[in-house]
Design goal:
This protein is mostly beta strands and about 950 residues long. It is about 5% helix and about 45% strand. It folds into six domains: about 250 residues; about 90 residues, Immunoglobulins (Immunoglobulin-like, Sandwich), CATH 2.60.40.10; about 90 residues, Immunoglobulin-like, CATH 2.60.40; about 110 residues, Sandwich (Jelly Rolls), CATH 2.60.120; about 120 residues, Jelly Rolls; about 120 residues, Jelly Rolls, CATH 2.60.120.
Length: about 950
């Protein structure tokens, strides 16, 4: 059916409807010259390449309208390109003229590329547009935003000017204002204001000043201003024709000061209770039409209409003031003046377009000066077959600015049937439509596949066969003999392929600047072969959540997902095509953890009673950050009342039979360990001793699945420092209270930009009791405790230490010298060839006392090697494992020595994993690289056989984990 006509309501919503009332039709004012054959100068203020020093091409437009106005020549068109993002807040003055054959045109009409209509915002200092001393100029399809309620468009000293299809919009002012929307000064002539929409933002809508001549104000819709809608004073030969003026405040149309001309075919609407009425716009008493005594003999008025919308309590409004006399009705006006022979009143105020059967329809004078062949929206003047013609002349114009059009009703059943199926697909369409005026109709059905449209008369179904697969839009157009038409489209006929479009799915962990967010997945869905055929796609992430993906992407679709915890997830993409057929694709994502190095600090120190449990909160462990799944801790024990073992485990879970640290009276011990945390980060620390013990706890790192952090790079153990042999650059014991600097970055495969080192540090040939500290070589020192020892003891502890320049500092805190040894187990850094962490529930995977892990009860013999399978059980994947995180314990050894831990299938290194002394149970953390067969080797370098426990707390998998 036809575009509905907009209703001019009584609220500020009028301002929003700029594009509705602003027209945009194809017609022109009567006898208006068209644009000349010259250049097109482009203005685009939001363009990144605009320049006022250029030539105004479309590829490099002017930034300001003034720049174009300064260089425009006869025959040129200035195209002002609009944007919803930016108006032109400029005071533009045109001083250049065209000719009768080659006028200058300034146009703000949208281009076919769906740009918006151009909007000029009125500055406070001057009108938005001034035509000064020009001739043969046309301004069309520009919108004005009148923020200051000031003059908007001013025509001064100019002639042969046409202002067509303009819009002046702003909210109604709440105080008295003085501006004029469109003003024509007294030195101007031959000016036409046509098909323009003006809202209540100024004192006057259109104002013509004394001395002007031959001004035509036609086919405009005006919401009257505070002082007048169309006000003409002292102007000769002024024609006010076919306008619709809504008048909540002042006089709709007035001529005074000896003006001459014609007032015909206008509609004025009295809005007595409109919401626009404020303190600055009182309920009016002024007449709707006013012609002064000095103008009455020079003005002809006829075929005008007065409409009312008023409450029952409102007084009747004077319709006419003529030569000083007031007339409340058109009949009284006609009888008293002889004017207005065909004027009508008593009509309820309509919307801007007359309602069906309104007396305004087909009742205007087609011969009135300035009457246009099209209405404000560019629609032709047509004969309403439901209304008898009461106007004059041919053309059947309605009174006012907008023409009532026929209403064509298209049946809701005029859709393709069936709308989908396999190609070749035969469809049928009904062709039912009616004209409200009873006009004979024809139809044209376009099936959207390039075939010729089918034509005929409504009522007979039309058939068509789609031979090629595709998605098509059908369009049926019904046309009256006078060219009036209505159209209905159906975008969605699907002639499907024989098989549904396939789909695929891939996933990768997210990386940034060499770090990885191990639980953040990036999924990629390649474009299907026939994307037009896809109806919708759903991606289920495997953790109980899902996303709906765009169905019409022509290229690959990417989406991301943050998993809630480490684990293996199967994501499933389900794709449904337009025929309801589904295809699926699956991929597996292994969410894991990356390492966040922490500056070591003493986080808490507590004494735990015999068989007591200390609950450690997330805040205490510094594990209350995004996605923390495990913490790496250093435990230092002192003041033990009896020997025993400390066991760490997630709060609220069953305590495992594992050990993280051992202690005994009279000795201080240190060890690092890893513990899985609960979703809230809490951990329980159990004292398995019969006596109390004091524990100092420091966090040295976090494992997180939701932070960008580092991956682990295990190595086959290699010695970096041995002061006994000179390895590392020092060949002499380190004196008590002295330090040495060890360079690790740039050696043994450790890059210079590694962020943390995993070292087994050992003190041997000790001359007095003491301890060792390891610190970063930086002003931002991070210090961890190494082993504590007694005189003559060899002691080893594994530490994780941040590095900034590849160097660490080892300090002998004893009062006597000791030889220092440092063995590299691995390093943390960028993702290339790195591994991610997967925490597990603590489990004892080796006990030579029970046979766990080996299948037999037997000590590890002196200089013997034990092979331990560490993959495929206890939550450790069978493949892809690069290292395991263990706590090794040698309980009550009968002699002294050390253990070497290394990947099976490689040569045994001469490194320390754990040092033990006769009669003293010792526990140490060991991050051990695995062999290609998933096994590690434990070698007893001591002279007596020993029992060995190995407790598993996690594993590292090649990136991406799994």
């Amino acid at each position: 059916m036809h575009r509905s006509r907009p209703a001019v309501g009584l609220s500020l919503a009028l301002v929003v409807a700029v594009g509705v009332m602003g027209g945009g039709g194809a017609g022109r004012a009567a006898a208006d010259p068209g644009p000349g054959p010259g250049r097109t100068l482009y203005v685009e203020n939001y363009s990144a390449v605009c320049s006022d020093s250029g030539t105004g091409t479309e590829s490099r437009p002017f930034c300001t309208v003034q720049a174009a106005a300064d260089v425009v020549e006869p025959g040129d068109t200035v195209r002002v390109l609009g944007s919803s993002l930016s108006a032109y807040s400029q005071a533009v003055t045109l001083t250049r003229s065209g000719t009768s054959d080659e006028p200058i045109t300034i146009s703000g009409a949208p281009l076919p590329s769906s740009r918006s209509q151009a909007v000029l915002a009125t500055p406070a200092s001057a009108p938005a547009l001034t035509l000064k001393g020009v001739h043969d100029v046309r301004v069309e399809s520009l919108a004005f935003s009148d923020e200051h309620h000031a003059d908007v468009v001013a025509v001064t000293g100019s002639d042969h000017v046409t202002l067509d299809r303009l819009t002046v919009a702003n909210s109604a002012p709440t105080v008295a204002v003085t501006g004029t929307a469109i003003g024509v000064d007294g030195t101007s002539s031959d000016v036409t204001v046509a098909r323009t929409s003006i809202y209540a933002g100024t004192a006057y809508g259109v104002r013509v000043e004394p001395g002007a001549a031959r001004v035509t104000v036609t086919t405009n819709v005006i919401l009257t201003q505070q002082r007048g809608g169309i006000a003409v004073s002292g102007a000769a030969d002024t024609d006010v024709t076919g306008n619709t003026v809504f008048a909540p405040c002042a006089t709709a149309i007035s001529l005074d000061g000896g003006s001459s001309g014609v007032v015909e075919n206008n509609v004025t609407a009295f809005l007595s209770n409109g919401s626009l009425q404020t303190g600055a716009c009182q309920t009016p008493t002024a007449p709707l039409y006013a012609v002064s005594a000095d103008s009455a003999s020079r003005v002809t008025a006829d075929y005008n209409a007065v409409t009312h919308q008023q409450s029952s309590s409102a007084p009747a409004r004077t319709e006419y003031s003529w030569a000083g006399a007031s007339y409340t009705t058109s009949g009284a006006f006609r009888d008293g003046t002889g004017q207005g022979a065909h004027d009508i009143d008593g009509i309820t105020a309509p919307p801007a377009t007359p309602s069906e059967h309104s007396p305004l329809i087909d009742s205007a004078d087609a011969t009135a000066p300035g009457e246009l062949g099209t209405d404000q929206e560019g629609h032709a003047r047509v004969d309403d077959l439901l209304v008898a013609d009461t106007g004059n002349g041919t053309g059947h114009p309605d009174r006012g600015a907008l023409e009532r059009q026929d209403t064509l009703t298209i049946s809701a059943d005029d859709d393709p049937t069936p709308p989908k199926g396999l190609a070749p697909l035969g469809i049928s369409m009904k062709t039912d439509a009616t004209s409200a005026w009873g006009a004979a109709l024809t139809y044209s059905a376009d099936f959207g596949d390039g075939s010729a449209p089918a034509t005929g008369t409504p009522g007979t179904p039309v058939s068509h066969t789609y031979t090629a697969p595709g998605r098509y839009t059908t369009r049926i157009t019904f046309t009256e003999p006078d060219g009036t038409n209505a159209e209905k489209s159906y975008a969605g006929v699907t002639a499907g392929t024989a098989t549904p479009p396939g789909t695929a799915l891939s996933v990768a962990a997210d990386t940034a600047a060499g770090q990885v967010n191990g639980g953040f997945a990036r999924f990629t869905v390649p474009a299907p072969a026939d994307p037009w055929e896809v109806g919708y796609r759903t991606l289920s992430f495997g953790d109980g959540t899902q996303d709906n993906l765009p169905a019409d992407d022509q290229g690959p679709t990417q989406t991301t997902h943050q998993y809630p915890a480490p684990g293996t997830y199967t994501a499933t993409l389900t794709q449904t095509d337009l025929l309801g057929r589904t295809t699926t694709a699956r991929t597996t994502f292994h969410a894991a953890d990356a390492f966040v190095a922490m500056t070591s600090q003493y986080d808490t120190e507590k004494t735990i009673a015999a068989h007591g449990v200390l609950k450690l909160s997330a805040a205490t462990l510094r594990a209350d950050s995004n996605g923390a799944d495990a913490v790496q801790l250093q435990l230092a024990t002192s003041n033990a009342k009896a020997s025993g073992t400390l066991t760490l485990y997630p709060h609220g879970t069953t305590r495992p039979g594992t050990g993280d640290a051992t202690f005994e009276p009279g000795r201080t011990t240190t060890t690092e360990t890893t513990v899985k945390v609960t979703p809230t980060g809490s951990v329980d620390l159990y004292n398995g001793s019969s006596g109390a013990v004091t524990v100092n706890i420091a966090t040295v790192g976090l494992q997180s699945h939701a932070q960008y952090a580092d991956t682990y790079h295990p190595v086959a153990p290699v010695r970096l420092l041995d002061t006994r042999t000179g390895t590392g650059g020092t060949r002499s014991p380190v004196a008590g209270g002295h330090s040495l600097t060890l360079t690790a970055g740039g050696t043994h495969g450790v890059p210079a930009n590694a962020t943390a080192l995993v070292l087994d540090v050992t003190a041997t040939t000790t001359k007095a009791s003491g301890d060792l500290t390891v610190a970063t070589h930086s002003t931002n020192d991070s210090v961890v405790s190494g082993p504590y020892w007694t005189t003559g003891q060899t002691a080893t502890t594994q530490v994780v230490i941040p590095v900034y320049d590849g160097k660490v500092v080892l300090r002998n805190e004893s009062k006597a010298s000791a030889n220092l040894v440092a063995d590299l187990a691995g390093w943390y850094g960028t993702t290339a060839n790195g591994s991610e962490f997967l925490p597990v529930t603590p489990a004892r995977i080796l006990s030579t006392r029970t046979g766990a892990g080996t299948g037999k009860v037997a000590r590890l013999a002196a200089h013997g090697t034990l092979k331990l399978k560490v993959t495929g059980a206890h939550g450790v994947p069978a493949t892809g494992v690069t290292a395991v995180d263990l706590n090794l314990t040698v309980p009550s050894p009968s002699g002294s020595g050390y253990l070497v831990a290394y990947p099976d299938g490689t040569s045994r290194p001469g490194t320390y994993a754990l040092s033990f002394a006769k009669g003293h149970t010792t526990t140490a953390r060991a991050l051990v690289r695995t062999g290609t067969n998933g096994e590690i080797d434990l070698y007893n370098a001591g002279s007596t056989s020993v029992d060995v426990y190995a407790d598993l707390v996690g594993d590292y998998d090649v990136f991406p984990a799994g």
